[in-house]
Amino acid sequence: MSALQNNLTRLVVLGGAMFALAACDPQEMADKAMRRTAESVVQPVLARELPGNLADAATQCVLDAASPDEIRSLARDLGVEAGSQTVENIRNLALRPAAAACFARSGVPALKG
Questions:
Q1: Which domain does 72 fall in, by range?
Q2: CA 64, 53, 72, 28 torsion: positive or negative?
Q3: What pTM does this model have?
Q4: Measuring CA to CA, which residue among 38, 19, 41 is closest to residue 30?
Q5: DSSP 48
Q6: From CA 22, how far away is CA 70, in angstroms rounded?
């Protein structure tokens, strides 16, 4: 392969990468990162009552029922054990009709007390 072909190949690859990055929505990326952070707070709380796979499914249901502001609020407890207010917020989210319907579709039992 000639030097010119190498340079053209690099240019095409670089252009494609730049196009792919430009297509990324920064707000969408931030929202996904915030949701992943909230998952790491919610899942251990639900795992106290539900075994692994069910806790994972319930976590997704709870987060799907939460507003963006509620997800940000849950994510604030990252790195510390969820306090009583956070546990209560998770329970309240789990009681919402959207979360309850998701629990039923996913085979997740209702949370106790």
A1: 25-106
A2: negative
A3: 0.75
A4: 38
A5: T
A6: 29
- φ and ψ at residue 82, rounded to 5 degrees: -60, 130
Furthest CA-CA distance within the chain: 72
What pLDDT sits at residue 24? 66
Token pair 């929505």 is found at 25
How many structural domains compose the chain?
1
Q: pLDDT digit string (tens) for 24-78?
A: 677 788 778 888 999 999 999 999 999 989 999 999 999 999 999 999 999 988 7
Residue 13 forms part of a structural domain: no
Q: Residue 107 and residue 23: Cα distance in Å, rounded?
A: 37
Tokens 């949701």, residue located: 35
- If one compares 2 and 47, the residue with the highest pLDDT of the two is 47
Banded pLDDT at 5 (limits 50, 70, 90): low
Chain centroid offset of residue 37 CA: 7
